[in-house]
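Hi X.,

You mentioned you wanted examples for the new student's onboarding notes, showing what a folding record looks like when two proteins sit in one file. Here is a clean example. The first protein comes first, with its sequence line followed by its structure tokens.
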Amino acid sequence: MRIRLLWKLLFINVLPVIAVILLVIWFAVDNLASQYFMALMNKYDVPVDDIHQMFLTSIHFYLIWAAVIAVVLAFILSFVLTRKVLRPLSQMTIITREVSAGNYSLRADVRSRDEVGELGEAFNQMADNLEQVEQLRKAMVSDVAHELRTPLTNLRGYLEGLNDGVLPPSPATFAMLQQENLRLVDLVSDLQQLARADAAKAFLKRESLLLSDLVSRLLTLHQLNFHSKKIRVETLFSTQEQNVSADQDKILQALQNLLDNACKYTPRRGWVKITIEPLHKAMKVTFENSGEGIAKKDIPFIFERFFRADRSRSRDGGGAGIGLAITKELIEAHQGRVGAESRDGVTRIWIELPI
């Protein structure tokens, strides 16, 4: 592709320009210069037939050689410059083949700030995103396998013990089997919720809602959970709050995920603060809680599926890492945004919904 494009550009930029210039000069010599030459010859009574022909032959000879030299020089310069311009495109072609083969480490060498340079930067950004997606995909497959392996291994052990007579078929044994089975059911339920969140854009039942009403309803349901950990809950709802057009069930699910996280990761005798405030053509809900916080390097990934900042956490202690991913999908289905920050032992996670 590079060679074909190179030759096309050379043909367009060199040959037509030289040909037009040559024809213009040829016409000027044959018509204007020759007429002026003959007028001079007639003025001084000089025979013009042979001299005129010698004049035209000489001019045509040097004109042809000048055209040849101009074509060669123009070809060399255009070849060098065009090849330099097309080098990033050639690199991107090679890198595209590598990316399609699974190698995401290569990047185009961008040295200019023109349109080709902008294309190279956009291409590198795309390669970065693809590499990140691939890493998250591998991590997700590994996490799903891990989440499934633990309860399945436990179930296998218990069933083999029962079959071999090592474990007695007691209520306690069946309770452990039921617990492991519920862990699998919960994981499958999380995956189903994530799938429904992915398809939320096509199934939104919008209605006018006050976010403060939804948050208050959820706080009432979670009152015992906060009370058991002696967590102090504070709310700050703006008096200028406006209704949002949203699907109530999906927004409730997103808010509940954030409230569950706030309760789960706030230490005993800690605090949680929920703020609702108006923005320009949007309403913002912020969940703020005390605790260990989230590492700065992990903040960009907490809304990714199956991502957990502490990879050693079990599902019982930290979940499968799907809740925030579901929240992100549901909020973005409403053309909203999500965000997070963590510093000085305080974590803030917020959502923005258009009015």
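Then the second protein repeats the pattern, sequence line and then tokens:
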Amino acid sequence: ITLKLPPLRERGKDIVGLAESMLIGFNAQFSKLHASFYVEKFLSAGAKSFIRKQTWPGNVRELRNALIQSAVMSTDKNLTEADLAAALSELPNSSNLANELERPLGDGFDLEKQLDVFRKQYLSRAWKESNGIKVKATELLGLKHHQTLTNQMTRLGVPFES
């Protein structure tokens, strides 16, 4: 028997239910393993909207990985659109940038938040590649002053560790 399942982008409202179901499972698993510091996670309205708008070229596996990464990295109990966008940008998939650039405008789109997601990635990468040397990280990013690097890393919560 061959079952043909439609891709996630064609699943409409089902995709949010699937994501919530996965998140319930992750919450149970992570709470058992890391009860001392894991906070049960839920999808905010913005996160649900974000999930519906994505094309999910990696299908269920990509959704699963994005939810796991978001759940583990977020300290808040409500996962946001920014949490999911950050997780997707870190997943190894060449179409992520194209997906982000094709996101619909309006309906809660926030250019500064999107730019901050990219800034955070580049700041973190430059910090690692420079082995925590501010002058070198500043040069890698093409910034004029190391204080700009420090200010942006602090504002975006990028850790000062290699």
